[in-house]
Amino acid sequence: MHIRHSVRHSNRSEHPSTITASWVHVAVGCVVAVLVSLTTIGYQAMYTAYKKDGIYSSLCDGNVTSCRAQGLQLDLMFVLSVSVVGLLAGIIGSLTNWLGPRISSVAGCFIVAGGSLLFGLSTTEFQGWLFGYILIGAGGSFVTFAMYTLPLQVPHAEEGRAFSAIAAAIEASAAVMLVMKLVYDLSNLGIRELYIGYSFVAIFCAIICFTLFQSKTDDESKQALLPKKVEDSDKNSSQETSLSIDKVPTTNSIPDWAKVEQTNKAQKKIITQDDSWLHADDVSLFDIVCSWPFLATSLWIALHMLSKFFYITSLNRQLSWMGGSRREVNTAVEAFSIMMPFAGLLYPITGSVMDKGGCVTSVVLLAILQGLIALCSVLPSFELQYVTMVLAIFNRFLFFGVAPYVLVHMYGPRGVNSIYGVCLFVGSCFNLLNYLFIYLGENVLDGNWLILNIPIHGTSCLFSLLFAIYLQRARKSKDQGYKFEHKYP
User: What distance in Å separates the CA atoms of residue 333 and residue 289, rounded to the nearest whole number?
Assistant: First the structure.
């Protein structure tokens, strides 16, 4: 796969009707993302319903319908789903680039529908819950990558808000499990009926995705992500610029400097130069992955994911270490699960930060949040951990908007799904260390999570600051007309 980009977002139009249409596409994409993207992250909300409905109850002895072995198997189902989707992120991102957002999103919705049917139709004799849950996560990942192409249609100045809106919708997808849990508690419907019904929701979303990207053929949908070659752009822009110059009034009432200014404005509107910092012309994905800029970016993403998932995985254990009773811990974890989907309500704030502050400011904000999480998580106060939860939720939400935003600005829109997918794959590999850290915390450190919180969260904070300095140097070199030094093999 070769990634070439010389003119950034040349297919964007600044006409008001086009801008409105692009934001309508983003809004519809947000609805689809809420319904079928990463719904499996709301697993904790349905955990008790799974146990009550008898999923994996065959692992319990005698007539007992709930036991430790059942809970461990359910946890394994969730962990394997997240891990498999993360390890396949590079492949899913590349397939999205290759197939285009229309085909990949529709296919993802049907995969979610198939996984839901398999989950709902599974029985004690036919235990397809694990594979069905993995399919739901994998299909949602296809939809997620497809929806991240929609912000590339909006004007460049509003791109941060668009990325933030999509990230908010993906984060809010955990609410699907909350709704299912409410329906389960308030009705006579079981897990079987809920998941079969959810499969029809996924099929409906497939129809929406087909319509959402229907303005172009599948090949044109891919080309919408690929900027035009610079030769064609220069040729077209020179012709259009000459027309714009002809339209400038030549009467003596307009001074020469005004004519020049109008001409420059016409040229600036027609020619949109590549705003990415790393000009990877005709460079393969493999060569990009082997470069120093990618190493820095993937390490930043990996350390952040490690810190984020370590906090989520060890939350109940850390709350117990803080002195909370079993009831207090369960209440706090449940509150954390409920608050998570509503982090998206902050998207106007985070979007404005990304649009006005840019990549460097956004990364610095992530570093500050990470530092506050490290500080609050080591203070021996159970009540203070509610503040830590809010910071962790906001940090997680902001990260999933900033990460693709930074990659688009570094490498340009073409191939960004492939690059982001490989970064998530690296992050998933790092995330496997969480099991080692949990083991160390419980069995070696005797539950003293202070020793782990400081290096894990602190390392992520420090590297985010270093990465922000790196981005600042890259931006400065770009503004001065130089290509930031990057060595490809």
Answer: 38
Q: How far apart are the first and last CA of the chain?
A: 15
Residue 481 has pLDDT above 60, yes or no: no
330-339: list long-range contacts, CB under 8 Å, 24+ apart: 332/385, 332/386, 332/389, 333/44, 334/44, 335/386, 335/389, 336/389, 336/393, 337/42, 337/44, 337/45, 337/174, 337/178, 338/45, 338/178, 339/389, 339/390, 339/393
Residues 223-248 pLDDT 10s: 444 444 434 444 444 444 444 444 44
Give the pLDDT confidence of 184-228 residue by residue, as tens digits. Answer: 888 888 888 999 999 999 999 999 999 887 544 444 444 444 444
**CA–CA separation, 240 and 246 (whole Å):** 10
Query: In the numeric block, which tokens belong to residue 223?
Result: 């080309």
Query: Contact 154/225 with Cβ under 8 angstroms?
Result: no
Contact (Cβ atoms closer than 8 angstroms) between residue 387 and residue 376: yes
CA dist., res. 431 & res. 317, Å (int): 18
Beta bridge partners of residue 2, listed in sequence order:
284
